[in-house]
Design brief:
Blueprint: E1 27-34, E2 38-40, E3 44-53, E4 66-75, E5 83-84, E6 86-88, E7 94-95, E8 97-102, E9 110-119, E10 123-131, E11 148-149, E12 153-155, E13 162-168, E14 185-194
Parallel strand pairs: 2-13, 6-14
Antiparallel strand pairs: 1-3, 1-12, 3-9, 4-5, 4-8, 4-10, 6-7, 9-14, 10-13, 11-12
Length: about 200
């Protein structure tokens, strides 16, 4: 008597692809730096940031081109609640978020960027940044795509993911005071890749 046994091997793997032996990519913010966290009204804010494709013990897949998102909140002073701030850019369109394209990265590779902003209202601004905004890159860890705060510099740790900038009027003339009920607008001046 012949008995034929058949079985199938079920492979469950949330971090690796058993078909090609490569691990999924993993993007994170390496550094975010506000060149000057206290800025005079009308001066330009330079926000430098670096996205890294984290290394692992095994080879990871290439992270294809994606995008990063920048959002901001505003409050007049420490006693005021945070509220959404808006951006204007080319064509004077107003938006809640700035989406910036990012280049493809191989494992261990990084890309540095610089965004520039200008403020017309005195107060405090809190920036949040997120890599791979639309989840186009399959990642082994989707939870480390935001930038986290440390004084002046931000790294990819769990916790708060905000950068706070204080905009002041050096002349104390009352210029830049918010008009009641009007939205707070940040002028987005553009983004570029930089070498560091």
């Amino acid at each position: 008597m012949l008995v034929f046994l058949s079985f199938s091997l079920i492979v469950q793997c949330d971090k690796c692809d058993p078909c090609d032996g490569l691990y999924l990519a993993d993007l994170a913010f390496g550094i975010v730096n506000i060149v000057n966290p206290q800025i005079a009204l009308g001066a330009e804010l330079v926000l430098k940031n670096k996205i890294v494709h984290l290394e692992q013990d095994c080879e990871r897949q290439r992270a294809n081109e994606s995008s990063k998102k920048v959002t901001a909140e505003y409050r007049a002073d420490n006693d005021s609640p945070w509220e959404d701030a808006y951006f204007t850019g080319e064509g004077n369109t107003t938006t809640y978020e700035v989406i910036v394209p990012t280049k493809a990265l191989d494992e261990g590779e990084e890309a540095s960027y610089q965004e520039n902003y200008k403020f017309g209202t005195v107060g405090q601004y809190k920036f949040d940044l997120e890599a791979d905004t639309y989840d186009v890159v399959d990642e082994s860890n989707e939870q480390n795509n935001t930038a986290d705060t440390e004084p002046g510099t931000v790294s990819n740790k769990n916790g708060s993911n905000s950068l706070i900038v204080v905009v002041y009027d050096p002349t104390n003339s009352g210029k830049g005071k918010r008009k009641k009920g009007s939205p707070v607008i940040i002028e987005y001046l553009g983004s570029k890749e930089i070498s560091e």
